[in-house]
Specification:
Strand order of the largest sheet: 1-2-3
Radius of gyration: 20 Å
Strand content: 15-25%
Structural class: alpha/beta
Number of helices: 9
Largest sheet: 3 strands, parallel
Bound molecules: glutamic acid
Number of strands: 10
Helix content: 25-40%
Distance between the termini: 20 Å
Length: 287
């Protein structure tokens, strides 16, 4: 089997225990399959990135023995590829320009009794599907197919069979804002395909995006990788460990890697980084 995996951190802060766990899981999965492991810095939204964090994350990974098998990609340099993907969708009428502001979308949703609960996705009501009516484009959206075309099913390697009816949960989702960055969904799909990623291993907080990514892969006629979403590390209050919740940056080295191996349910054995990682690789397939 030809296996290419990747770790794709957003440099909104440094590596913390939660992101190290995702990095290590994707590395172990790649190594235990005899595959390649890549790193892609997802700095597509520059306004959210911390200066220097991308480089520092790479240093932290190296200090944990996690070294990519090919040069690192930076999404901030991939605009041309994203634009040509969007253009090809527009030409085929699989994407369209949208003039709605958030407030206008909310008005329509409220009038239909569809306002989302906190933390839920906003279902785009389709206002601009048939045209802008002379209004200025604010964004571009994927035209999600109707009915069975919007039903996505995939088998997650940890969570099992997952199904989402995308037209009823998120609707036509954003690919780009006119005055803002490329959307994560478009950038991740274009880059996973361009880097030949066959296996995605990442945190289960992103599992919910997978159906949208599969729809985009279909629209762009790109292959769908295999997905495995790992359990998240949580703080004492049960919240996902994240930069937003103030998770501390890791100190790269034996202790951090050993702790991370343990969090994955494996037995940390070895006196050097190399031994620790090799023993963890040998245990990984059984997880
Ligand atoms: N950049 C995303 C993050 O840091 C991960 C995206 C992915 O693995 O698909 O949460």
């Amino acid at each position: 089997m030809s296996y290419t995996g990747r770790f794709a951190p957003s440099p909104t802060g440094l590596l913390h225990a939660g992101s190290l766990l995702a990095a290590l899981a994707s590395w172990l999965d790649a190594r235990s399959h005899g595959g390649r492991w890549l790193v892609r810095i997802e700095d597509v939204d520059q306004s959210r990135c911390k200066p220097g964090a991308g480089r520092e994350i790479l240093r932290q990974l190296a200090g944990c023995g996690l070294i990519p098998d090919a040069p690192v990609w930076w999404q901030s340099q991939r605009g041309t590829a994203y634009q040509s993907a969007l253009d090809s969708l527009l030409v085929k009428n699989k994407a369209y320009a949208c003039a709605c502001s958030k407030r206008e979308i909310d008005q329509v949703l409220r009038s239909r009794g569809l306002m989302p609960q906190r933390g839920e996705e906003r279902l785009y009501p389709g206002t601009c599907r048939e045209g802008l009516g002379g209004r200025r484009p604010r964004a571009w959206r994927l035209r999600v197919p109707a009915a069975t075309g919007a039903r996505v099913q995939w088998e997650d390697r940890r969570l099992g069979v997952q199904t989402q009816q995308v037209d009823q949960t998120v609707g036509d989702f954003l690919l780009k804002r006119a005055d803002g960055p490329w959307a994560y969904q478009l950038a991740v799909v274009v880059d996973d395909a361009a880097q030949g990623v066959s296996h995605v291993v990442r945190g289960e907080d992103i599992a919910d995006s997978t159906a949208r990514q599969i729809l985009l892969q279909r629209a762009l006629e790109l292959p769908t990788p295999s997905y495995r979403h790992i359990g998240l590390l949580r703080d004492a209050e049960g919240r996902k460990l994240s930069k937003q919740n103030g998770a501390e940056s890791i100190v790269p080295g034996l202790a951090a890697v050993s702790h991370s191996i343990q969090s994955l349910g494996l037995n940390p054995r070895g006196k050097t980084l190399g031994e620790l990682l090799e023993n963890a690789t040998n245990q990984w397939l059984d997880v």
